[in-house]
């Protein structure tokens, strides 16, 4: 249905590759994606053809940061596991160490990718009494980091020193599979891993092994590979892994704002005008 289209409006679940671009034909001038991520777009091919791209950053930052904090708390304080105990009759009498988890107070939080969402997460975690923030990424961001007194460190040191690891980076060739066996092997046995960026940043087999063997305490994932995750996936058999169906931006207000922005990007692109949010290719 894309043949002859001048513009495309797509979701992050739509792979816009060479085949789609060929099918659309030479008249395609603009692609607008209802997402902040753009790893589903064949950017090299799009750039080669002179096609403009609109996306929806900023408007989903707060919603995604809120969800990241909720997921972190759910994993570290074992909320789904505890709720299941209430339903299944596992809640009997009070026991000193039953359902104990790990708290944020006086902890070290490591953030992989201190961009808009990473900063928004740090801003929300700071009042919980986090002692220290570490971050890693393509380079230091002293101005952004100053608000949290965050220290730029290599990935290996972030893994070794963090009580909580939060992944909020973009998926690029440099970040693909970066959270792997070596990474999890360096983490503390009491540490909690949270990913709300893209599933492919994580080697899921290595994460399963780390969780199943007790190498790390728990994980919370809002993103997986593939999506949706098959119901028989090994990660879903683990009590110490909380998995959500990619709902980072899922508030009514945010999704509505994203939709309007994506439509306005598309219309501006078709008119040959500056887009509200254009991806610089």
From TrEMBL:
Keywords: Oxidoreductase
Official protein name in the record: Glyoxylate reductase/hydroxypyruvate reductase
CDD domains: GDH (cd05301)
Pfam families listed in its UniProt record: 2-Hacid_dh (PF00389), 2-Hacid_dh_C (PF02826)
Protein encoded by which gene: Grhpr_2
GO CC entries: cytosol
GO MF term (any one): hydroxypyruvate reductase (NADH) activity
Keyword hit for Cell inner membrane: no
Gene3D superfamilies: NAD(P)-binding Rossmann-like Domain
Family to which the UniProt record says this protein belongs: Belongs to the D-isomer specific 2-hydroxyacid dehydrogenase family.
Signal peptide: none
Residue span(s) of domain D-isomer specific 2-hydroxyacid dehydrogenase catalytic: 2-279
Protein species of origin: Rhabdornis inornatus
Location of the D-isomer specific 2-hydroxyacid dehydrogenase NAD-binding domain: 69-248
């Amino acid at each position: 249905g894309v043949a002859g289209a001048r513009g495309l409006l797509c979701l992050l679940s739509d792979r816009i590759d060479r085949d789609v671009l060929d099918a659309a034909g030479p008249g395609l001038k603009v692609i607008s994606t209802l997402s902040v991520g753009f790893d589903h777009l064949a950017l090299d091919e799009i750039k080669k053809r002179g096609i403009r791209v609109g996306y929806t950053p900023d408007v989903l930052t707060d919603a995604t940061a809120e969800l990241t904090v909720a997921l972190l708390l759910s994993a570290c304080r074992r909320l789904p596991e505890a709720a299941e105990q209430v339903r299944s009759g596992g809640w009997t009498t009070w026991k000193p160490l039953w359902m104990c988890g790990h708290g944020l107070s006086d902890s070290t939080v490591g953030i992989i990718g201190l961009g808009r969402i990473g900063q928004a997460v740090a801003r929300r975690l700071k009042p919980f009494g986090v002692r220290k923030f570490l971050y890693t990424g393509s380079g230091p961001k002293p101005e952004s980091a100053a608000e949290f007194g965050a220290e730029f460190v290599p990935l290996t040191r972030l893994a070794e020193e963090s009580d909580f690891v939060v992944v909020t980076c973009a998926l690029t060739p440099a970040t693909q599979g970066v959270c792997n066996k070596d990474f999890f092997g360096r983490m503390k046995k009491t540490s909690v891993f949270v990913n709300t960026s893209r599933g492919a940043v994580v080697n899921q087999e290595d994460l399963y092994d780390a969780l199943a063997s007790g190498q790390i305490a728990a994980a919370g994932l809002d993103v997986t590979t593939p999506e949706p995750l098959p119901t028989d996936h090994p990660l879903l058999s683990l009590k110490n892994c909380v998995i959500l169906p990619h709902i980072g931006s899922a508030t009514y207000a945010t999704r509505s704002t994203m939709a309007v922005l994506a439509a306005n990007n598309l219309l501006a692109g078709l008119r040959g005008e500056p887009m509200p949010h254009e991806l610089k290719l």
